[in-house]
Amino acid sequence: MFEKVLVANRGEIAIRVMRACRELDINTVAVYSDADKKALFTNYADEAYHIGGSHPSQSYLNVEKIVSVAEEAGADAIHPGYGFLAENPKLPKECEKRGIKFIGPSASIMKTMGDKIAAKKLMSKVGVPTIPGTEKGVKSVKKALKIADEIGYPVIIKAAAGGGGVGMRTVYEEDEMERAMESAKSLAKSVFGDSRVYIEKYFEKPRHIEFQVLADEHGNAIHLGDRECSIQRRHQKLIEEAPSPIVNKELREKIGSMVVNATKEIGYTNAGTFEFLYADGNFYFLEMNTRIQVEHPVTEAVTGIDIVKEQIKIAAGEELNITQKDVKINGHAIECRINAEDPLSDFQPCPGKITGYRSPGGIGVRVDSGVYMGYEIPSFYDSMISKLIVWGRNRKEAIVRMRRALSEYIIIGVKTTIPFHKAMMVDPLFVKGELHTQFVDQHKKRIEEEMKKIIEKDRERVSRQVSTFLPPKKVAAITAAIGSYIAHIQKKGENK
């Protein structure tokens, strides 16, 4: 087992990895930017090293600096977390060159699966169903129009090197194609340094379902069941749950066996996720994430398996001590991403100082967070504050428990997505499990009206709870701020 692991990330995922290391009796090394000097994860680690400026390019994306710090600190391995360098093959390649173990797949497999065109072609080869469309990059508008005629409109243009919804353009009619192609290629070039794009059939209201896999370096591989991630905004997930409300035992075993076989066929090792679109009763491969997922806690909650600890043990050369028969899906889990965003203003980021903070607790509740009262949320990184995860014996109990946990969660000083999640937990269609990736956009008006009611209703209750951990003057100021926000919402409504 490793003696010391450097975590090449920040925030809640850095602390999550460090917790796993602590349980394995491994010392940890944090790296931090100017903006994260006072971040919680820097103090949680056994050692912390400053690596550069606040902008990611000056710090968390600097491969040379991070690996050099690992050498200086005497770290045996590097865990990338998610985001930043987690799916950049340059990091594992540099680690291999310097004799440091990368906790993740090899650079070559990461490169292949990171290229969406190559990944799709490989999945077709190993028998995983893919979305109708091209298996090569599309350069000309003429070719794009021909493909769209063959598979039928609407179609979606995607960046070959993309991810996270960046650079996607949906085309409903022929005369939209030229502008969409130019826009997608230009954005792909500026963001990923690769202008290649490809075209797929666009499904109007698919479900987003994924399967978690683990594979060791000795040829063993298992899946840990499915997750549903259909509640999204701008192709970014907001709520995840395990298992999916529409995947039964037989379907889970069928798709699970398929992804395990694919994992072995491509020689994949460590933790990975196969993402699918589910439409018209069929699964279609979307992409493979070659890292730990943000939503991994819901799988941990229903299986009892610590995925991050398994990652570390696999990287250390250990064989999986879990067989497929050992994996049991117990109950239901839901995760809400608590972001510093204003859900009533199209989820606009709202960085700032947290002036009041109280997290929920009780049976079946988990909070993965990297913040504290007085912490300043920087504007340079993802807006996530924390992840709230609940477990219940079934989906109904999990939803009720999430409602209760959200009612206990108090974050003052910045606007958050808590009102959105409260609205979703009482939404009749969400409760029924009738989900799809366009849910938030399609039901935007209804969700916003519910959020406004919730904010008004919470005004007095939140003020009472805040008074238990803040001085009276601060409570009065916060109450006034909430009142101003409600007035702003009402005025906004009148303007409309």
From TrEMBL:
Give coiled-coil spans as residue ranges.
none
Which Pfam family is an annotated match for this chain, by its short name?
Biotin_carb_C
What binding partners and quaternary form does the record give?
Heterooctamer of four A and four B subunits.
Q: What does this protein do?
A: Pyruvate carboxylase catalyzes a 2-step reaction, involving the ATP-dependent carboxylation of the covalently attached biotin in the first step and the transfer of the carboxyl group to pyruvate in the second.
| Alphabetized InterPro entries for the sequence | ACC_Biotin_Carboxylase, Acetyl_CoA_COase_biotin_COase, ATP-grasp, BC-like_N, Biotin_carboxylation_dom, Biotin_COase_C, CPAse_ATP-bd, PreATP-grasp_dom_sf
Q: GO terms for biological process?
A: gluconeogenesis
Q: Which SUPFAM superfamilies match?
A: Glutathione synthetase ATP-binding domain-like, PreATP-grasp domain, Rudiment single hybrid motif
Q: What are the Biotin carboxylation domain coordinates in residue numbering?
A: 1-445
Name a GO molecular-function annotation: metal ion binding
This chain belongs to the protein called Pyruvate carboxylase subunit A
Top-level taxon: Archaea
The annotated pathway is: Carbohydrate biosynthesis; gluconeogenesis
Cofactor(s) recorded in Swiss-Prot or TrEMBL: Mn(2+); Co(2+)
Task: Identify the residues that the record assigns to the ATP-grasp domain, covering every copy.
Answer: 120-316
EC annotation from Swiss-Prot or TrEMBL: 6.4.1.1
Catalysed reactions listed for this entry: hydrogencarbonate + pyruvate + ATP = oxaloacetate + ADP + phosphate + H(+)
Keywords from UniProt, A to Z, are: ATP-binding, Gluconeogenesis, Ligase, Magnesium, Metal-binding, Nucleotide-binding, Pyruvate
Keyword match Flavoprotein: no
| Gene3D superfamilies tied to this protein | ATP-grasp fold, B domain
